[in-house]
Amino acid sequence: METTTMNHSRGVHLLAELIDVDPSHVARAVSTASRAHRTIHESGIHELTGEQLRRLVERDRFAVVIVANLAMRFAGRSEDALLLMDIYRASVGTQAQSTPTRKGIGALPEHHDHPYVQRAIRILQAAGLPPLHTDGIHPLRWGFQVQPAGEELPGWIFINPDPDCDERTGFAGGRRGYLAVMRWAGWGVINEPVYEGLLAAVHPDHRNNAFSAPSNS
């Protein structure tokens, strides 16, 4: 068994880092959820290594979402617990959009039809983050903007955070909140801005490990 301090497994610590809560809240959530969810009970998540947790995410991501939701609630962050569920639903395509995404919302019109740009916009909107509104020439309302990274970086997108992001708190608060949201949705991220404040994320189809990020090199 791979363990770290406080007798919590590496898997518990990784999940705690991913959702920014104390490992004890994750461990308590595992114990609570395992009584009702067979996958969690059989996974032995208390003893999971990082690699085993990654495989559990691939096999039954919803089981991990249940644990994360409970851990957030045990940490006293009910709004963030709901946010985790909304992001999950958006990432797997089970949550209908409240309004249709039209050209100029969250991306320049010429990037509207890019599939990964659209997926990223839906995920970020599910996290309550405000998208840019533009006619392609002028910004009509300030917000985040998503763009494809280019053919040389298939699967990658760049995110320009909204101007007010530093004023927000919680799971999706601040500039790093954008990375936390995309990482929770299963995308790989670079932990620092790549240039001119842009954030980089890669779709899971191009990066299988949802619990690690590429280096800045």
Compact description:
The chain has 217 residues and is of the alpha+beta class. It is built from 8 helices and 6 strands, in the order αααααααββββαββ.
Averaging pLDDT over every residue, what do you get? Answer: 83
Strand content: 5-15%
Helix/strand-derived class?
alpha+beta
The major pleated sheet works out as: 4 strands, antiparallel
Helix content: 40-55%
Features:
disordered C terminus; four-stranded antiparallel sheet; 41% helix; alpha+beta; two-stranded antiparallel sheet; 6 strands; 217 residues
Task: Describe the 3D structure.
Strand 1 and strand 2 form a beta hairpin. The protein is an alpha+beta fold. The chain contains 8 helices and 6 strands. Helix content is 41%, strand content 9%. The two termini are 32 Å apart. The N terminus and C terminus are likely disordered. The protein is elongated, with a radius of gyration of 18 Å.
Outline the secondary-structure elements.
Elements: H1 10-19, H2 23-34, H3 38-43, H4 50-59, H5 61-74, H6 78-92, H7 115-126, E1 133-134, E2 139-141, E3 145-148, E4 156-160, H8 174-184, E5 188-189, E6 199-202
Antiparallel strand pairs: 1-2, 3-4, 4-6, 5-6
Helix pairs in contact: 1-2, 1-4, 2-5, 4-5, 5-6, 6-7
